[in-house]
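Record now logged for everyone:
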Amino acid sequence: MSGNLEPRDRVTFLPHRLNRQPTVVRGLTADELWITVTLSATVGLLIGVPLAWIAHSIALAPTVIAVSMAVGVFAGGGVLRRHKRGRPDTWLYRQMQWRIRRRVPALSRYVGASELIDRSGYWSIRRGPTR
């Protein structure tokens, strides 16, 4: 084989979805699924441990955690799918970074939010009047 490609051997288009993460469950990518499962498991833990203590049943805590993860993936997948529709691939992550930067500035450097441009005011393009 030679290093020269003939015109029929060249790719005439660049697939724009080639580097996207594939959708895994209910419109969520793998990273979004991990975020959803982690948050819903945390909520299940915060509800399940006191409930297990009150009911005197240790098995209630993991049950509540598992149910909350299932509900979180089902409900969270639908909500995130609706919010992401028609937006760029990185929209969710930038939105999360922006909210962390606004609400908890001390955490912003750990999640990369300190690199975001956060400025309010007028922007000018420094053009003069057209003639």
User: Anything to note?
Assistant: The mean pLDDT is 81. Residues 30-55 form the longest helix (26 residues).
